[in-house]
Design goal:
Blueprint: H1 3-23, H2 28-52, H3 57-83, H4 89-115
Helix pairs in contact: 1-2, 1-4, 2-3, 3-4
């Protein structure tokens, strides 16, 4: 997968997160979790774009680590939505799968860069 394809993939993730958050029931817990999910889920792509503009290998690795952290946080909020019974697992399983795949690719990229 090239850089542009990965940018598109993280943008699709952000749009799916936005759609999910907009569909959450209105409650204090859903609002708080939704706000956190919206922040972390949309920052995955934004931080990946920043990593693509890194000024050095160390800068790129540092920015990719932020992408990894934000994606992992996104998984946390998605799991919390399920465990708190705010949403059915079937509504977020594909988002969880996609976010885990993004993490795996970012981790592989970091390892590759460190190996050079």
């Amino acid at each position: 997968m090239n850089e542009e394809q990965f940018k598109a993939r993280t943008r699709r993730l952000a749009l799916q997160i936005i759609e999910l958050v907009e569909s959450l029931p209105r409650s204090r817990a859903a609002d708080v979790i939704g706000r956190q999910l919206l922040r972390s889920g949309t920052s995955v792509g934004a931080n990946y774009r920043a990593a693509c503009r890194g000024k050095s290998k160390a800068d790129v690795i540092s920015k990719l680590a932020i992408v990894e952290e934000e994606a992992d946080e996104t998984i946390y909020w998605l799991e919390l939505l399920i465990e708190s019974k705010i949403v059915e697992p079937s509504r977020v399983n594909l988002l969880l799968k996609e976010t885990n795949e993004i993490i795996a690719m970012i981790v592989a990229s970091i390892k590759t860069l460190r190996g050079r």
